[in-house]
Amino acid sequence: MRTTIVVFTKVPKAGDTKTRLTANRGGILTPAEAMAFYEGCLLDVINVCLAAGSGDVRVCYNHDGDREYLEKLLDRTSNRSQIKEVYADQGGNFDQCMQYAADYILKNGAPDRLADSVVIVGGDLPSLQPVILQDTVAKLERLAGSEPGRNAARNIENAPPGLGAALVEGACQEGGFSVVGYTCTTPFDFNRVFYNTEGITALDMLVTKAAQQNIPFGVVEAAPDVDIPVDLASMIPVIKALELAAQCDKSIKVPVNTLAVLGEIGLESSAVPPNR
């Protein structure tokens, strides 16, 4: 099974990137610091995707983003030549942008599809590890090759023999997900996953859609994203722990770019002692 890993991102821009971390939105960073922080996260996520060796790596960015600036940033990754392609979404809401990111790869299962399955990750996951992506792809292959997977699959001409349906996710905070993967034969789309009038969380929508279509469903280790100050405070000890653990475990990918930015800013997390 051919898999593409898509890093789904906005091009970093001061005043437009991670604004909920900035002081004027109740956070503690300046717009320039928030942008630098996200750049560090994005570089680390891409490096993890490259290190995982689980499929081609592509980057999908916002259609109105600065492509030239993004290319300069990508030159700082561990191996720019291993990024297969960089492409822009077509705008719209978050559901529509993520749908395009996947459709560009799977092409509804057409013979000219770029892969048989797609795994999409966000750019703000500094604790993401190669093993999570490797586990995602392994579970996709196992579930897609199962009898329930074949039974749930859409009938697509020229699909690889035996390639069934499968949906795998890695959760994050507040009912969201940070990793999602599925095959080209899976009867799934992102419509109403992020934007729905019922107030259903994104992760609940994944579960509901999978259950309604009898799609074999898998979960992998959670990878928290960073959107608000409490996320940032919670993340700092986690990546410091990864840095130390990597001395004894070479499979761990240290988020060196994120750590460098935090060091430059001078950020540390703290816990307020309880009143007794």
Give a written overview of the molecule:
With 276 residues, the chain is an alpha/beta fold. The chain is built from eight helices and seven strands. It has helices at residues 31-52, 67-74, 94-106, 130-144, 147-152, 202-212, 229-245, 256-265; strands at residues 3-9, 56-61, 83-88, 117-122, 167-171, 177-183, 217-220. A seven-stranded mixed sheet has the order 3-2-1-4-6-5-7, sandwiched between helices. The radius of gyration is 19 Å and the shape is globular.
Specify the oligomeric state: single chain
**How many helix segments?**
8
End-to-end gap: 58 Å
What is Rg? 19 Å
Q: What fraction strand?
A: 5-15%
Offer a concise description of the structure.
With 276 residues, this protein is of the alpha/beta class.
Spell out the key features of this protein.
276 residues, alpha/beta, 8 helices, 37% helix
Layout of strands and helices, then pairs:
Elements: E1 3-9, H1 31-52, E2 56-61, H2 67-74, E3 83-88, H3 94-106, E4 117-122, H4 130-144, H5 147-152, E5 167-171, E6 177-183, H6 202-212, E7 217-220, H7 229-245, H8 256-265
Parallel strand pairs: 1-2, 1-4, 2-3, 5-7
Antiparallel strand pairs: 4-6, 5-6
Helix pairs in contact: 1-4, 1-8
